[in-house]
Design goal:
Chain lengths: 412, 482
């Protein structure tokens, strides 16, 4: 570990108030790296001032929202200051007629959904169900990790729902991109650049998000079959049916696939009937479906195991299930879009075997949650012009390496 | 131009792939924004990624700017040449390299026309969703550069939603891939930045596209209203109800008149029409379609026509697609604007545009992708009347101000290009522009890749463009403005 850099605390206390410039405690540690100070700015101007001061003092900064995904990525090489977005938790606007909302990066997913649920005469939601506790996980953190859940099959990831972003660079520069309209091609799409950047490029302060109407009804069909090949064939059969499922999640070793349709009562009923008739499966009753829905996003994240994010060609579904079944304790594959999350033990051998197998299929594997001794296995090998471009982008936005240095691919 | 560079370019492309004769260069002097014209020093027509890389390397070494170009149908001057620079025209790279129906991917070279992608997979029940109205001629490379939309992106998303990977020649001539057929490529999402970067971050030479199944059913209706604001309220009500039609298009009386004169689409004679299309599973579509009809009736639609079959649907769309070109029937000249407003603000913005018509004593025909708030007001003028062209441009600029004051955008799908680079500071703060500049420099530190586009420069923003002149493709009836 690097030697601790001395921090001049007073300027930070002056910027955000003494009660929001706190000495770091043991549970503020980021992947084994202990910051000295936790700063909680109240608004974007304070974030900018804090970053300017941190850069001036040559400190390194890790951004924390709810702290649920701080272990994603590799450990930062240094971290003296933890910048908490906790107080940037305001709903700026919700325009039900336009199906958009704008919120501070520190607002939790649950708080946002609760606000949306209270809007009179509308049933709108942010169609994201990432595998993080929604009452803790923040919108900024969800953007910074790009994490997603079963709904991805129909609505995409936060990449597809983010229509605008405000942020602060390491040197305090306040930037923004996109806006609050759903169609907009003015300027570079910095929102996509920041999605999944793990706080290494900028501090996200505010996000504008596209919303969807909540469907009045929801039905689930459970497919099952004994081999990966047979199950995959059923799942791929779904793609040819006139149905629009919200999620299609293969769960292994359960040998099942949960197919959920969210629609009008009539539309949902007709679609599950089509599915049951054409690819088989059992239409679940209300209670059973609700139990399954509530556990689906969390499934491979239960317990303490290592969790790997996997992507592979959609046409190699059977091989992916078989491969993950061999090396992982549990895997959930979003069957129509070629992405999966797998839980493994802390032994490096099966992780490496799974990675090699996935890469042979033409895919890749990244460890999302893993203990420190596995830090060298977090990212796949990184080389080539694309990684050089990523380094150039990092250098352009954060030339001194202030923001979470070393957390991203290739030590960026 | 430096003779060493000319020789290097000649070596980089096959015989006949280098154009330097002044009369031949004039073909490339503008794109669909015909008021801006610059003759380049040379045009190259490479046929492979390696040839593009060789051309870019040669330009980069000589520090000579280059501009990528596809079919030249862009409406913001994104492919406007740079004086003394090179145009790298990709229309000879028009191979469909791979079709993977099960994986729902098609890999193409950038010169492939948008519609060719759907043509290649239609027999297998799939299509490529983004549908800019010039889709029969505009290229995928240009679509990637502009993040093109189209009438159906309301439901299906824009080019950026459907491009999953590209091969990029960086501004110094290196070749790299970004994204890929498989989701979630590790590292920063540079693909997301390159799509829509208007050719300023490199040249895309291969594109992997996502294709989707053709919906089971399509239902289309045309509704006539007694006023634009009544139609606007109907749109707001449909969206607020949570219905996502495949498309909602809106035209005003002036646009309807022009269309009727041009293509006889038999639109209702009224103050405003809405063209609403729903698609998807039959199970879902029928009840939603009935609900949309009900909303339109409640919004006092005077007339509702439902397309009984594919040919009636085609006729309804024919009117909409002909709208820009049809303006020639009612005005010698026109300027196409492209702005965006929040969808709930249609009615007040329409009132604002009407007030501007009075103030400037000019007519504005309104053609909108109403479902996503994307306005295409057409400012009509007579170029031969002294000062009218300038007044029209000023009015068009005031419409953008109106969009911004409602929290909208200066462009929804045509791009910033050279046309609106100087308007960027109206929408973006100094800090935001600084970030864009830094990202651009990360890709292109020497400033050779399509300079003068997207971001304002003092030189650029001192000049005044000429009036609109019709594009050769428009005169030939091949392309329309939308």
């Amino acid at each position: 570990m690097s030697t601790a850099t001395a921090i001049d605390v007073l300027p930070f206390a002056a910027l955000v108030g003494e009660e929001h410039a706190l000495a770091a405690r043991a549970d503020d540690t980021v992947q084994g790296v202990s910051p000295s100070l936790v700063v909680e700015p109240a608004d974007e101007a304070e974030v900018s001032a804090v970053m300017r001061e941190a850069s001036r003092q040559r400190l390194t900064v890790v951004v924390r929202g709810g702290g649920t995904t701080l272990a994603w990525g590799t450990p930062p090489r240094r971290c003296e200051l933890l910048l908490s977005t906790r107080r940037l938790d305001r709903l700026v606007e919700h325009q039900p007629g336009d199906l958009i909302c704008v919120a501070g990066a520190g607002m939790t997913l649950a708080a946002l959904q609760a606000h949306l649920g209270r809007a009179q005469g509308h049933r709108q939601r942010l169609m994201l169900d990432p595998p993080v506790p929604p009452e803790v996980a923040t919108l900024g953190g969800i953007v910074a990790t790009g994490c997603s859940g079963p709904l991805r099959t129909r609505y995409g990831t936060v990449r597809d729902l983010l229509i605008g972003v405000r942020f602060v660079l390491a040197d305090g520069t306040v930037g923004h991109a996109g806006g609050k309209v759903v169609k907009n091609v003015a300027g570079y799409d910095i929102g996509k650049l920041l999605t999944g950047s793990l706080g290494t490029l900028a501090v996200i302060t505010q996000v504008a998000l596209r919303l969807h109407p909540a469907a009045p009804d929801s039905r689930v069909v459970l497919l099952d079959d004994s081999t990966p090949e047979a199950l995959a064939a059923r799942v791929q059969g779904l793609a040819r049916l006139p149905v629009t499922p919200s999620c299609v999640d293969v769960i292994w070793p359960d040998r099942t696939c949960a197919v959920r349709v969210d629609s009008s009562a009539e539309g949902a009923e007709r679609q599950v009937q089509i599915i049951a008739a054409r690819v088989g499966g059992r239409i679940l009753g209300e209670g059973e479906a609700a139990a399954l829905n509530s556990s689906l996003a969390q499934r491979p994240w239960m317990g303490d195991g290592v969790v790997a994010g996997i992507a592979a060609p959609r046409s190699r579904l059977a091989e992916l299930i078989r491969l993950a079944g061999r090396h992982a304790d549990e895997v959930v594959v979003r069957g129509l879009i070629g992405v999966a999350e797998a839980r493994l033990g802390a032994d490096p051998a099966p992780i490496t075997a799974l990675r090699n197998g996935v890469e042979q299929l033409g895919g890749h594997l990244v460890l999302h949650r893993s203990p420190l001794p596995l830090r060298d296995l977090v990212w796949p090998a990184a080389a080539g012009a694309a990684v050089e471009l990523m380094r150039s982008v990092k250098h352009a936005l954060d030339p001194q390496g202030v923001l979470a240095p070393g957390r991203h691919l290739g030590g960026i | 131009m430096d003779s060493g560079l000319v020789a290097a370019l000649a070596r980089a492309v096959p015989t006949g792939g280098l154009i330097t004769a002044p009369e031949a260069l004039r073909t490339y002097e503008c794109d669909g924004l015909t008021g801006h014209r610059v003759v380049p020093s040379a045009v190259v027509l490479p046929e492979s990624t390696d040839q593009v890389a060789a051309c870019v390397s040669a330009c980069h070494q000589a520090r000579v700017p280059f501009v990528a170009r596809g079919a030249g149908t862009g409406l913001s001057g994104g492919a406007l040449p740079v004086a003394d620079g090179v145009v790298i025209c990709l229309t000879r790279m028009r191979a469909i390299l791979d079709v993977d129906i099960q994986g729902q991917r098609v890999t193409v070279q950038p010169g492939v026309a948008n519609l060719q992608v759907s043509d290649a997979v239609r027999a297998n029940g799939h299509y490529y969703a983004p549908d800019p109205s010039s889709q029969s001629v505009c290229t995928i490379g240009g679509n990637v550069a502009e993040n093109s939309g189209g009438a159906h992106c309301l439901k299906y998303g824009f080019t950026t939603t459907h491009v999953v990977g590209v091969t990029l020649v960086t501004p110094d001539g290196r070749v790299t891939t970004l994204g890929g057929a498989v989701a979630d490529a590790p590292g920063y999402d540079l693909l997301g930045v390159v799509v829509g970067s208007e050719g300023t971050l490199g040249i895309v030479t291969e594109v992997i596209l996502n294709i989707i199944p053709i919906p089971e059913t399509v239902r289309t209706m045309l509704c006539g209203f007694a006023s634009m604001s009544a139609a606007g309220l109907a749109v707001s009500a449909i969206i607020a109800e949570g219905i996502t039609p495949a498309a909602i298009e809106m035209m005003d009386r002036l646009a309807i008149e022009a269309v009727e004169a041009a293509v006889h689409a038999d639109y209702p004679r009224c103050q405003a029409v809405l063209l609403v299309e729903l698609d998807g599973p039959r199970a879902e579509c029928a009840s939603t379609f009935a609900r949309v009809e009900e909303i339109c009736r409640q919004s006092e639609a005077q007339e509702i026509r439902v397309a009984a079959d594919a040919s009636q649907r085609a006729m309804m769309w024919r009117g909409r697609r002909a709208a820009f070109a049809a303006m020639g029937r009612i005005s010698p000249d026109y300027y196409v604007q492209d702005g965006v407003i929040p969808r709930g603000r249609l009615a007040p913005v329409l009132d604002g545009i009407a007030a501007l018509e009075q103030e400037y004593d000019l007519r504005v025909a309104n053609v909108f992708h109403a479902g996503d708030g994307n306005l295409h007001p057409l400012v009509l003028y007579t170029g031969s009347h002294h000062g009218e062209g300038d007044r029209a441009l000023e009015l068009a600029g005031r419409i953008l101000d109106l969009c911004l004051s409602e929290g909208g955008s200066i462009t929804g799908e045509h791009g910033v290009g050279s046309d609106k680079a100087c308007a960027m500071p109206k929408m973006f703060s100094e800090g935001a522009l600084e970030v864009f500049t830094r990202v651009r420099a990360a890709f292109d530190p020497d400033g050779v890749c399509n300079p003068g586009k997207v971001l304002p420069t003092p030189r650029l923003c001192g000049e005044v463009p000429g009036p609109y002149r019709p594009h050769p493709l428009e005169i030939a009836g091949v392309a329309t403005r939308m």
